[in-house]
What does this fold into?
Amino acid sequence: MRIKYFGTAAGEGFPGLFCSCEACERARKAGGKNIRTRSQALIDRALLIDFPADTYMHVLHGGLDLREVKNLLITHSHEDHLYTSDFEYRKFGYAYFDADIEELSPITVYSSNNTGESIERAIKKGKLDKFNAFVWKEAKAFCSFEVDGYTVTPLEADHDKKTRPLMYCVEKDGKKLLYAHDTGQFPESTWQWLSEKRAHFNFVSLDCTTIINESKRNHMGIKCCEETRDRLLEIEAADEKTSFCLHHFSHNGKPIYDELKHIADEKGFLVSYDGAEFKI
Ligand SMILES: [Zn+2]
Ligand SMILES: [Zn+2]
Ligand SMILES: [Zn+2]
It folds into this structure.
């Protein structure tokens, strides 16, 4: 299994769209890996996680080929993770395909029911189901489902409750990955599932939005990521071979990539950047 990060920032991007704080200025000046677009990741060429407005940029400059994508896992309905306006452009007339519309396989979008409301609205408004462009399926916390040979289990996250946010556990060929965004310290329901199911991860992607600022609720900072790693090790959901990658960063958290890399190296964490790819 492989994971590729196309975008690695929180909602406003890093540098922030309208921001001239010191962190954003340093990021602009340094360029390269210090420039972060809104978060999106792809597992192998099979499962795309989240669909921000920057998806188009990831197609243009990041090597994302949406013509290959048939399954989309959505963590929650905040716009930096779900920008449904662009779904429209998979309709015939905006897009042409080798197959006829009747034979076209739709992109299946998985999310919680709350987040599904905005997906269903977009599907209805654009008649996207009639064009076989998109269909929505409910992903229920702690209920595993199969997608193209992958076992996916949504877990509860600690984030805006109105969206009923989910993290995703993805498993294939004996390898297991946890994508934990956006979330604060994991809810006890998720810890209980992890213990009971004796889940064991090879790769864990952790929300580190607030970086050096401490945060336990809604988003995490490095300190909370360390505590989360400790607890995962304690319940044997991870071991010394498990890779832990910090991801989804805000400029309010201060360090740009070049600075954060040193801090993360010392603590034994990987750091995501736009274009980063890891073999699991
Ligand atoms: Zn976010
Ligand atoms: Zn800023
Ligand atoms: Zn969010």
